[in-house]
Amino acid sequence: MNKVRKIPLRKCVVTGERCEKKQLIRVVRSPEGVVTVDPTGKANGRGAYLKNDPAVIRQAQKTKVLERHLETAIPDAVYEELLKKASA
Questions:
Q1: How crowded is residue 5: how many other Cβ atoms within 10 Å of its Cβ?
Q2: 51, 19 in Cβ contact below 8 A?
């Protein structure tokens, strides 16, 4: 009997839609307060997910939705890295 594996779903903090984890990019605030892009999805700390779409990332930057979710200021370098990943 084949066991059906559950596909992990996560919610994009901008669009509010539930997507497969693979279609999203995770941004994490470490316990030390450092905000980074988490390509593995396993980094320690508080995470928020964004859809892998440049328009969604720009929207997040404009509305500061990530700053509210992670409860800290987010440097422009993080958004630049997100945009690079999304366009790749």
A1: 6
A2: yes
- Domain boundaries, given as residue ranges, for the chain: 10-87
* Chain mean position to CA 38: 8
For 24-64, how does the pLDDT look when each residue is reduced to its tens digit (9 = 90+)?
999 999 999 999 999 998 999 999 999 999 999 999 999 99
pLDDT higher than threshold 70 for residue 1: no
Tell me how crowded residue 1 is: count the other CB atoms within 10 A of its CB.
3
Contact at 8 Å (CB) between 46 and 70?
A: yes
pTM, to two decimals: 0.88
Q: Is the dihedral of CA 65, 40, 77, 85 positive or negative?
A: negative
**Helix 54-63 and helix 76-87: axis angle, to 10°?**
160
Question: CATH top-level class for 10-87?
Answer: alpha beta
